[in-house]
Amino acid sequence: MRSGQIKTVPMMQDHENECKRMRKIAALSGNYTPGPDACTANKALFFVLEEFESDRHKHIHLEKELQADD
């Protein structure tokens, strides 16, 4: 076992927990789709949530690349 693998386990568990949390938010929000009568604040919230999920995917991908380099 490589030394970096020990640290990877908690990180991967964190990633999985966050993935589950964001999947639930996406499902509850109609995949970040505001209703037809949504106010500007709700539209902004849904936009930011979708952007956050995209950034999270990039973050996880970068961490996996860095881990593979160890």
From TrEMBL:
Superkingdom of the organism of origin: Bacteria
InterPro entries per UniProt: RIC_family
GO cellular component: cytoplasm
Location in or out of the cell: Cytoplasm
Transmembrane segments: none
Chief localisation class: cytoplasm
PANTHER family, sorted: IRON-SULFUR CLUSTER REPAIR PROTEIN YTFE (PTHR36438)
Protein name: Hemerythrin-like domain-containing protein
Organism of origin: Dyadobacter fanqingshengii
